[in-house]
């Protein structure tokens, strides 16, 4: 049988990004947390953490983290049936990996009612939609919104809809770089804005226009900052349609190629054995996504 105090220590170290913060979260001394990790490793006969900054789970550590994530959620189901099992009665916390554009646009109205009704607190782990699934694979989160359809072992994935992006730039930027109109060649020689090194959306967009290879670009790992840079004329970029409604209406941003929007599918991944709480959150997201996301592909 597992000693779940040891597994909770492992989860805290990974989720909090270190032993010191894990100790604060658990209400223990740092040495006590360290001793629990050492005892866990002694019992399983191999390391569960790579002592890096921040600590990373080993392959076995990932399996243990996946297990403890699901145990937490199943325990909540039991306390709903048998309230006397609950020690503190505090709200449940869910760690969810999510891309910045989702967080900046449709996520809050989709989950607000659920969090209030279920007394849930959310820990958001922001990752690009291309790579967010790695957090589930590492056992660090209970669920994930990302662009990958295939779930990790032990999880399910459902299509929520698509986030529609449009290529936008400021009027001044357009006048400077596209005096003869927006062409593939002109786009290739004008500075773009890219969210981060894992963001390949602009790359794929240019490739669809026949432009390949490297191109000049700013890096801006902030959804709000991305729009600010584009509005200020630093570059052009693919911005969520939901996020740019005001800027487009005020003329601060202008669409470069109105007939070429990009729809990025978004999938919700969650543990099969995540209990009633994750099932209810999934139902809520599917319901709300019907009015918040695109459900028909934009034409190529």
UniProtKB/TrEMBL annotation:
Q: Which UniProt keywords apply?
A: DNA-binding, Transcription, Transcription regulation
Sample GO molecular function, one term: DNA-binding transcription factor activity
By its UniProt entry, which InterPro entries does this protein fall under? Answer: ArgP, ArgP_gammaproteobact, LTTR, LysR_HTH_N, LysR_subst-bd, WH-like_DNA-bd_sf, WH_DNA-bd_sf
Query: What binding partners and quaternary form does the record give?
Result: Homodimer.
Q: Which HAMAP family match?
A: HTH_type_ArgP
What this protein is reported to do is described as: Controls the transcription of genes involved in arginine and lysine metabolism.
Its name, as the record gives it, is: HTH-type transcriptional regulator ArgP
